[in-house]
Amino acid sequence: MNAFQHSRRMLRRSHVLLILLAAAGMATAHDISGNAALTSDYVWRGSTQSHGDAAAQAGFKVPTESGFYASAWGSSVEFAPDTHASSELDFTVGWGKQLSEDWALDANVLHYRYPSTTVDLNWTELNTTLTWKNNYWLSLAWSPEALGTTQDGLYSQLGARVPVKERLRLEAMAGYYTLQDAPGGGYAHGQVSAIWAIAAPLELRVSAHATDRHARDLFGDDFAGSRWEVAVQGAF
Predict the structure, then answer these.
(1) DSSP β-ladder status, 123-132 and 103-113
(2) Is the confidence at residue 18, as pLDDT, over 90?
(3) Could you say which DSSP state residue 201 is in?
(4) Are 98 and 107 in contact (CB under 8 A)?
(5) Integer Cα distance of 154 and 217 in angstroms
């Protein structure tokens, strides 16, 4: 077995470890947080995961004092009809801490799971995010089975959060997804969002998304390109 096959097998089996570590995290947790959203379109890395339709989403996170945490998140989805995918479940175990007054680091293993599908779409990814002053970040994510395939994928993102008023902030991010077998070697996308704090804990988020032509070649015009998204979200 070569190194690629070994890493792929280890990542495919890691969802079992994720569940076990999540249970361990719950046993020693000191706080639990959650989130929920209703969005007009579930857009992930520039492409719609709900075929432009509304999606309901919810999740929770269980941290520990040492910085380790476990989380679970779910959303309704709509992929190609032949897959019959209608839901996505994400399971994460990771570690996150403030490195100094200005810098913070988060590293995790994330398993994407799509129940009741006719094809195997499940895959696992390694992620890390470095944050500066809580408002600027660089994220990297790698998987040897990107998007549920057998191709290598490396995703990178730069983002910024800018407070405008007490109840209004802007967020902008630019990402590039390097994919081994994709037309052009990958695709670029960008996102700009305005988030208004309606009343705690509810927020209204309006986002504009855009991708380059390589994303349209990869996913099709119905899933990539330019689109708007409006969401009501809350954290508790």
Answers:
(1) antiparallel
(2) no
(3) T
(4) no
(5) 18
Residue 20 has pLDDT above 50, yes or no: no
Can you give the residue ranges of every domain in the chain? 3-235
With beta carbons less than 8 A apart as the criterion, state whether 200 and 172 touch.
Answer: no
Preceding omega of 201 cis (within 30 degrees of 0): yes
What does CATH list as the number for 3-235?
Answer: 2.40.160.40
Give 213-230 pLDDT, tens digit per residue: 999 999 999 999 999 999
136, β-bridge pairs: 132, 160
More confident call, 228 vs 15: 228
Give 147's DSSP letter: G
Pairing of strands 202-211, 87-98: unpaired
- CA–CA separation, 158 vs 138, rounded Å? 5
- CA 148 to chain CA centroid, Å, is 14
